[in-house]
């Protein structure tokens, strides 16, 4: 660039007008230039941190393609449902489960099959129903009398 050039510019850092010697000059002074450089560095670092954070937040516990079994909690996260709903479906027998000592496991294949043959709404039993167990019992004789 020719040093004879005089270009009126506005400093990209402080906003004051100045006369630049080259078209590439963006700052009025070395100070503004270095401050702007530091800010760019800071922003880049901040963005890097944000990206890193977003990655950890979206990271599933396991790769869904690889898993065969999951816990009710993992399934609730996967389907975006509450844990209570998942347990209700399990209790209602809509979602099949394998109960091992202290651990309930659900097969991914079974969940996928639910999408093939969706359960009816009737299959959903709310929690409170579970707390009111059958209160009427009949002997076989009473049943015979009732049903003739
Ligand atoms: Zn400046």
What descriptive keywords fit this protein?
about 150 residues; alpha+beta; 3-stranded antiparallel beta sheet; 5 strands; about 45% helix; rod-shaped; binds zinc ion
Polypeptide structure, described:
The chain is an alpha+beta fold. The protein folds into two domains: 7-58, no CATH class; 69-131. The chain is 46% helix and 12% strand. It has helices at 30-58, 72-79, 83-91, 108-116, 127-131, 140-147; strands at 7-10, 17-20, 69-70, 98-100, 103-107. The chain has a three-stranded antiparallel β-sheet. The structure holds zinc ion. The site of zinc ion (ZN) has 8 residues, from loops.
Question: Layout of helices and strands, plus pairs?
Answer:
Layout: E1 7-10, E2 17-20, H1 30-58, E3 69-70, H2 72-79, H3 83-91, E4 98-100, E5 103-107, H4 108-116, H5 127-131, H6 140-147
Antiparallel strand pairs: 1-2, 3-5, 4-5
The protein binds zinc ion.
Helix content: 40-55%
Number of helices: 6
Give the strand order, joined by hyphens, for the main sheet: 3-5-4
What's the gyration radius in Å?
Answer: 34 Å
Organism: Heminiphilus faecis
Protein name: Helix-turn-helix domain-containing protein
């Amino acid at each position: 660039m020719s040093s004879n050039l005089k270009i009126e510019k506005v400093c990209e850092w402080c906003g004051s007008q100045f006369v630049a010697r080259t078209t590439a000059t963006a700052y009025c002074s070395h100070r503004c230039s270095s401050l702007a450089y530091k800010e760019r560095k800071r922003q880049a670092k901040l963005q890097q941190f944000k990206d890193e954070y977003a990655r950890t937040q979206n990271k599933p516990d396991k790769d869904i393609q690889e898993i065969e079994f999951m816990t009710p909690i993992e399934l609730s996260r996967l389907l975006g449902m509450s844990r209570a709903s998942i347990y209700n479906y399990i209790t209602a027998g809509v979602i099949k489960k394998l109960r091992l000592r202290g651990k309930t496991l659900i097969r991914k294949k079974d969940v996928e099959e639910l999408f093939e043959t969706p359960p009816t709404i009737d299959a959903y039993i709310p929690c409170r129903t579970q707390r009111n167990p059958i209160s009427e019992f009949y002997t076989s004789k009473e049943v015979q009398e009732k049903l003739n």
